[in-house]
């Protein structure tokens, strides 16, 4: 059986049609997706450096899939030793993803094991869509753009590439998410691209916890690829993200008779949509009293919305569907934000809309405390001859906390008690209790008495406790250990009357547990809502209707949670110990009772609730916040000209210490606030005017150490003879100029350095021969970290079929292949340079055929594969 074959050449990642642009977007996407994967694996303390290499054996891929899907994968090979075991791991991970709704196409386990970078990047993109954006639909890009255009009407956004290079759109998005954060964004110099992107991304990280999975210089690059930009920006629109929450808040102001907390179930009955549409223009029908099925109400609302020029991206039936995907509804309803009953009159007449609905909301107060429960403790089995009890308690040591009289250190404790009976004769030294930590470390105690051992903050999670007698297992159970000292409350701000307040509770490092929130004002409880936005992260909202201080109590498994500002020591240094106690008691002449208790004790800080101040107006504008370094003076401007006469005060908090800031009146009632940083980190600036907190307080500023210049680009890792290669030198704010020396195998290679408009420098050089090159880069006469760089220059065009093609060809000009018979094709790469030859074979249907390359040290390689089906096959080497 004959199969037709065509051959293309590739070596060391170079194809004959390779372009510089192709390499640049791959590198940007590679960096972004590597950072994104590391963010997902933080809980497991796993860090990858090379996304194409570190996923190849499937072990880290399985860990990633478990974190994203919440599934536990048991059929794995922990330490794969051969190709088969690696393929098994990857196949199991891909199967779980496919069953969980991830679109797995054109990629199989061999692609991952071989490190096919483009297909691996495509796989990670599908994970971003499914688990971060929350989408499986192909409309994700159009819906995302449509939402951005609705919430940022003053910014031109048509793509996820060049429209974001100058940082202006990101500033505007931050202002939408938190009004007043970047109110001066229209006046920012759009030509200062890199600094704009760097500063805006820092604000996003400080105020919303958005990680820099995309590097600022990549966001500012004209080669920015859309997937990398969308991955970063998706943190704004994911469930509970700042864009998600800000859109909810804006819509809640339009919808007065129904509380909306999401963009899925709260819209299924059509009531929220009906009220939103009715309130979006004058002379529109009142839809809220329509009688009928929800889908009919939604359909009528959609039709009325069309008179406002709002087209639905979903059908009425799709809006009522049970789904985890929120972007469709979020995109559609956001189109009504630019419309208002005060600004637009619509001539709409329809006799079917003739009823009036009234609504009366008589209270903002509740007698309940909001809570959300995480995973509960579970035990595996209970032998008939014994029993155990899970114990959780809290003890106060009444230790005064050194920085505040009102704070103290308590001990959070959770434990297990095991009771069993053992027949005589009894040897107490043969009793052993073992506790296995999540890290695999084993803590043991033999005999009776007390024993305690320290454990680390990284060993939070499920421990397994086992009791042995004479090396036989008697009893045991798993127990979840949490750490309240690692729970953080973030985003608490002073607010305004009638405006939805929001903050987050970060339990990602604290383990599984129950989150409780209690908001009170003047002794009365306020309705609050706790929503889990992702594993270990909770969003809390409440609406204050009276000015004054609001007390907010936050608990984690009953333990009080305090602000990180009150910690004067590293949380890693807190006391954490496992305490074991065993005692023996005679039951009768034949049996001994063995009682064992295991407690995990953790210090945590208590000392009263958080206090959030609410005012009845916001006449003070704060702007001009610029991050600095420890060698400079950061500042912000407070414009009190509309607030009347009063006294402005400013206080700075850093590492648990407070000190006053300097206030200078620039002009009448306009003040400049400055302070001298004492070290790198997060600074909180509290502003009060006539004793009342200014809305938005505390204002956050991040102070960095001076950053070092960096070098990046394809020209640092590979090049080809007689072709121009490039790389970028980024000063990152340092003064000076770069110098570059390139040494080839036999001679010095000249290079050209060109300053770029974004403040970076682009270096051009042309390799003239094969071999190893050494690139030495300095900035301001100082060596840059990572320099000198070493790379091998190869020439794929010199790869030859050993003996030529003719002996391999049949009469028809094709290589004859036989189904199920192994084929060997020899290649000689000895003249091409020091590189790795790879091959890819596709069968008649386009599917890949497993390929092996037998590589020898003399540059001779053999491509080996076995065709499985009749027809034409294509070979890419």
Quaternary state reads single chain
Poorly predicted parts: 1-21, 341-406, 566-571
Strand content: 25-35%
Helix/strand/pairing category = alpha+beta
Q: What distance lies between the first and last C-alpha atoms, to the nearest angstrom? A: 23 Å
Short description:
This protein is α+β, with helices and mostly antiparallel strands and 877 residues long. 20% of the residues lie in helices and 32% in strands. The longest helix has 21 residues, at 20-40.
Topology summary:
Layout: E1 5-8, E2 10-11, E3 14-15, H1 20-40, H2 51-54, H3 59-69, H4 83-99, H5 109-113, H6 117-133, H7 140-151, H8 168-177, H9 193-208, H10 216-219, H11 226-237, H12 242-252, H13 271-278, H14 294-306, H15 316-320, H16 327-334, E4 370-372, E5 386-400, E6 408-423, E7 431-436, E8 442-446, E9 449-454, E10 461-469, E11 472-481, E12 488-490, E13 495-496, E14 501-506, E15 515-521, E16 524-526, E17 528-534, E18 537-542, E19 548-556, E20 559-560, E21 576-586, E22 591-606, E23 610-615, E24 621-626, E25 628-629, E26 635-639, E27 648-654, E28 657-660, E29 662-667, E30 670-674, E31 681-689, E32 692-693, E33 699-704, E34 710-712, E35 724-730, E36 738-743, E37 748-749, E38 751-755, E39 761-766, E40 771-779, E41 782-783, E42 789-793, E43 800-801, E44 823-828, E45 840-842, E46 848-849, E47 851-855, E48 860-865, E49 873-876
Parallel strand pairs: 1-49, 13-23, 25-33
Antiparallel strand pairs: 2-3, 4-15, 5-6, 6-22, 7-8, 7-10, 9-21, 10-11, 12-14, 14-18, 15-16, 15-19, 17-18, 19-20, 19-23, 21-22, 24-26, 26-30, 27-28, 27-31, 29-30, 31-32, 31-33, 34-35, 35-39, 36-37, 36-40, 38-39, 40-41, 40-42, 43-44, 44-48, 45-46, 45-49, 47-48
Helix pairs in contact: 1-6, 1-11, 3-4, 6-11, 7-16, 8-9, 8-12, 13-14
């Amino acid at each position: 059986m004959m199969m037709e074959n065509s051959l293309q050449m590739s070596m060391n990642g170079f194809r004959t049609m390779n372009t510089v642009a192709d390499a640049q977007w791959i590198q940007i996407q590679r960096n972004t997706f590597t950072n994104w994967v590391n963010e997902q694996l933080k809980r497991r303390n796993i860090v990858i450096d090379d996304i194409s290499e570190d996923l190849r054996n499937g072990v880290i891929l399985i860990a990633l899939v478990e974190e994203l899907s919440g599934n536990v994968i048991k059929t794995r090979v922990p330490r794969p030793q051969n190709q088969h075991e690696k393929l098994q791991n990857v196949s199991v991970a891909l199967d779980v993803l496919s069953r969980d709704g991830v679109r797995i196409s054109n990629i199989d386990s061999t692609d991952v094991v071989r490190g096919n970078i483009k297909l691996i990047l495509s796989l990670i993109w599908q994970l971003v869509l499914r688990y971060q954006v929350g989408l499986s639909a192909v409309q994700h890009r159009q819906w995302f753009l449509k939402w951005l255009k609705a919430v940022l009407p003053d910014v031109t956004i048509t793509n996820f590439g060049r429209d974001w290079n100058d940082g202006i759109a990101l500033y505007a998005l931050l202002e939408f998410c938190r009004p007043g954060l970047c109110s001066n964004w229209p006046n920012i110099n759009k030509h200062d691209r890199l600094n704009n992107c760097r500063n805006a991304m820092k604000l996003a990280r400080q105020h919303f916890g958005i990680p820099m999975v995309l590097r600022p210089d990549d966001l500012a690059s004209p080669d920015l690829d859309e997937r990398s930009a969308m991955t970063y920006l998706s943190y704004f629109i994911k469930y509970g993200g700042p864009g998600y929450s800000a859109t909810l808040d804006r819509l809640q102001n339009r919808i007065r008779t129904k509380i909306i907390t999401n963009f899925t179930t709260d819209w299924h009955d059509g009531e929220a949509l009906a009220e939103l549409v009715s309130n979006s223009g004058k002379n529109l029908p009142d839809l809220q009293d329509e009688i009928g099925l929800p889908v009919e109400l939604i359909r009528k609302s959609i039709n009325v919305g069309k008179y406002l020029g709002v087209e639905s991206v979903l059908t009425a039936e799709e809006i009522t569907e049970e789904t985890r995907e929120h972007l469709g509804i979020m995109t559609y309803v956001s189109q009504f934000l630019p419309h208002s009953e005060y600004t637009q009159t619509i001539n709409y007449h329809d006799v079917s809309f003739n009823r009036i609905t009234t609504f009366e909301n008589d209270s903002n107060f509740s007698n309940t405390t909001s809570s959300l429960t995480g995973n509960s403790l579970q035990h595996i089995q209970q032998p008939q001859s014994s029993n155990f009890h899970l114990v959780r308690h809290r003890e106060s040591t009444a230790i005064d906390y050194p920085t505040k009289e009102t704070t103290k250190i308590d001990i959070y404790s959770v434990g297990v008690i095991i009771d069993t009976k053992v027949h005589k004769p009894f040897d107490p030294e043969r009793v052993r209790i073992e506790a296995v930590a999540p890290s695999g470390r084993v803590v043991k105690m033999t005999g009776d008495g007390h024993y305690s051992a320290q454990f680390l903050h990284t060993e939070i999670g499920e421990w397994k406790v086992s009791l042995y007698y004479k090396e036989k297992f008697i009893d045991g159970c798993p127990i979840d250990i949490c750490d309240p000292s690692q729970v953080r409350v973030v985003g608490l701000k002073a607010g305004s009357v009638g405006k939805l307040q929001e903050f987050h509770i970060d339990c990602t490092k604290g383990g599984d547990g129950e989150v409780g929130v209690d908001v009170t004002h003047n002794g009365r409880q306020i309705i609050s809502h706790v929503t889990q936005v992702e594993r270990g992260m909770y969003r809390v909202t409440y609406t204050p209707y009276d000015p004054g201080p609001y007390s907010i109590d936050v608990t984690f498994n009953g333990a009080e949670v305090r602000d990180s500002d009150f910690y004067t020591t590293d949380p890693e240094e807190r006391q954490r110990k496992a305490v074991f106690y065993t005692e023996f008691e005679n039951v009768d002449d034949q049996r001994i009772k063995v009682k064992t208790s295991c407690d995990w004790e953790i210090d945590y800080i208590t000392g009263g609730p958080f206090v959030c101040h609410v005012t009845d107006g916001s006449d003070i504008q704060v702007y001009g916040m610029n991050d600095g370094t420890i060698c400079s003076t950061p500042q912000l401007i407070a414009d009190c000209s509309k607030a009347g006469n009063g006294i402005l005060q400013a206080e700075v908090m850093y590492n648990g210490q407070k000190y006053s800031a300097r206030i200078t009146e620039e002009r009448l009632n306009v003040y400049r606030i400055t302070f001298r940083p004492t070290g790198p980190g997060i600074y909180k600036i509290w502003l009060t005017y006539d004793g009342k907190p200014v809305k938005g307080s505390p204002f956050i500023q991040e102070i960095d150490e001076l950053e070092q210049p960096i070098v990046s680009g394809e020209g640092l890792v590979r090049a080809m003879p007689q072709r121009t290669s490039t790389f970028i030198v980024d000063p990152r704010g340092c003064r000076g100029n770069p110098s570059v020396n390139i040494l080839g195998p036999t001679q010095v290679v000249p290079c050209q350095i060109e300053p770029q408009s974004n403040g970076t420098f682009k270096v051009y050089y042309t390799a003239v021969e094969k071999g190893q090159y050494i690139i030495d880069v300095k900035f301001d006469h100082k060596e840059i970290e990572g320099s000198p760089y070493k790379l091998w220059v190869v020439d794929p065009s010199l790869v030859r079929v050993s003996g030529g093609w003719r002996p391999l060809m049949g009469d028809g000009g094709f290589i004859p292949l036989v189904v199920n018979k192994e084929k060997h094709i020899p290649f000689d790469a000895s003249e091409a340079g020091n590189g790795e030859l790879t091959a890819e074979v596709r069968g008649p249907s386009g599917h890949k055929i497993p390929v092996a390359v037998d590589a020898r040290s003399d540059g001779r390689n053999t491509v080996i594969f076995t065709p499985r089906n009749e027809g034409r096959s294509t070979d890419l080497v």
